[in-house]
Amino acid sequence: MLKKVGILINGGDAPGLNAVIRAITRTAERNNIECYGFIDGFNGLLKNHYVRLDNQMITSGILHKGGAIIGSSLNANVFNYKVIEDGKEVYKDLSEKCVQNLKEDGIDCLFTLGGDSTQKSARDFSLRGINVIGVPKTIDNDVACTDVTFGFNTAVSVATDALDRLHTTAETHNRIMVLEVMGRYAGWITLESAIAGGADVALLPEIPYDMDKVVEKIQARQKAGKNFSVVVVSEGAFPKGGSISIKDTREGGKGVINIQLGGSGDIVAKELEKRTGLVARNTTLGYMQRGGTPSATDRILSTKYGAKAMELALEGKFNVLTVLKNGKLDYVSLEDVVGNNKEIGAVEGGTEDSNMKVVKLDDDLIKTARDIGICLGD
What we know:
Blueprint: E1 4-9, H1 17-30, E2 34-38, H2 41-47, E3 50-52, E4 81-85, E5 88-92, H3 95-105, E6 109-114, H4 116-126, E7 132-136, H5 152-173, E8 176-181, H6 188-196, E9 201-203, H7 211-223, E10 229-234, E11 246-249, E12 259-261, H8 264-276, E13 280-284, H9 296-314, E14 320-325, E15 328-333, H10 334-338, H11 364-371
Parallel strand pairs: 1-2, 1-6, 6-7, 7-14, 8-10, 8-13, 9-10
Antiparallel strand pairs: 2-3, 4-5, 11-12, 14-15
């Protein structure tokens, strides 16, 4: 019988996090279950730093707020955690300390809010005997086994608004306006915002682009009397025979994302200006996609996910991910989410073994984009 549950957030912030926290907490309250939030994600779990959420004012009025009231951990892999010993950086598996904390605290179920890497760690904790239920969070929409992640709709809305604004400048000054958006190795934000924002070109990580094709599209518009174009570029997009643009690298240890993508928009803008004769300017939207008030769609989706996650816990269905399948709430085993990424502690996404959801060439969105004349660089 459930008495206490805990909530943990890992990875970058996404609109809707507070709505999930609120839904889990309120459902717990209605069933006389204590609910706790670990401060700053896996770091808080390791330090046993938490706050009680039920029957407190802390969750009042947070539905519309961006960010997360309990914080989140970034690049914190407790299975390979950086510590200082004798003045030197070393990496240790501290997951057993986390397991010990959860057992001593009497946490009957841990809700993990996060993306691909977070749910991999959730699976690994389930193998340590912890009851875990995942909730798919990422603006990138790349978590396997679910139709959509919360935070994605808001990110697309922000990118679409940016395209609307860039379109006016492009048309006024006869320019090519390029917008670089997030998504890492998945092009969902790029594709949906391009369709919603009336872009002429959309370059995705899933389709290595041929610059000749992009130039042809823009020149065809010029011949039709349109001396401006709007291009959306994913941060993970790259040309045929080329590689992704890396803004920065770091040494954060095995199992975390050590590569910061960025620069793809600048590369595309410079090449287009050189080859078309039109002035081309890039805008990198960056963290604007993550922050701020969640859309109504994301508030509803987050609330549905949170309430469903707590329902699953009450039913004793653990070590699963709460998902949306064909428009209906459901759940899948964390093993299905992990896919072939079986090694304990190896949580980094975007590898051959990870089970990320990427855009497939037969997706309806791809067909729609082609039907309305958006160039995908191929």
